[in-house]
Amino acid sequence: MIRSSVSNCPVPTDQQPLNEYEELKTSWLFRDCTLNWRQYITKMLWIWGLSWLVAGPVAAASFPAHKNIAHFILCGAAGASIGVVLTLVRLYLGWQYVRDRLYSMTVFYEESGWYDGQTWTKPQEVLTRDRLIVAYDIKPILRRLQFTFAGLAGLLLIGTMVWHLF
């Protein structure tokens, strides 16, 4: 973990926005957003594939594969994409939370419990550092997630149009 360069920072180490960012960046699910595009898409496809374990039987119960293969595949694919959507929402909310904490001029923290919250105003050098991290590290991740949402919505739209053809 990176320690804040400000020695008079009253915020506990684990609640400092920079340390929250470093922790998020190295956690097993959230670090997938920092991979190159090919690796990132591969991870999303793995999640989609694993979601078929639930979506496949549900689709088969509604549209038996031996009778209506097109509807079975489309229904299963749409159902499996729910797992991807839920994962993307979790990733987006986590990165957005850290972005907001880094970008904010003040940091809310708890000293020992929920009942004694305090607010610390960041010095200008800390604020500048944190906003640079937001601009160069976190905004591209959020854009990637937004692009993934848009791509998934486009695929679901295409799937809907194909559904109506059959």
From TrEMBL:
Top-level taxonomic group: Bacteria
Transmembrane segments: 45-63, 69-93, 147-165
Keyword tags: Membrane, Transmembrane, Transmembrane helix
Matching InterPro entries: CGLD27-like
Keyword Glycoprotein carried by entry: no
Keyword Nucleotidyltransferase tagged: no
Alphabetized PANTHER family for the sequence: PROTEIN CONSERVED IN THE GREEN LINEAGE AND DIATOMS 27, CHLOROPLASTIC, PTHR34214
The protein's name in its UniProt record: DUF1230 domain-containing protein
Originating species: Nostoc minutum NIES-26
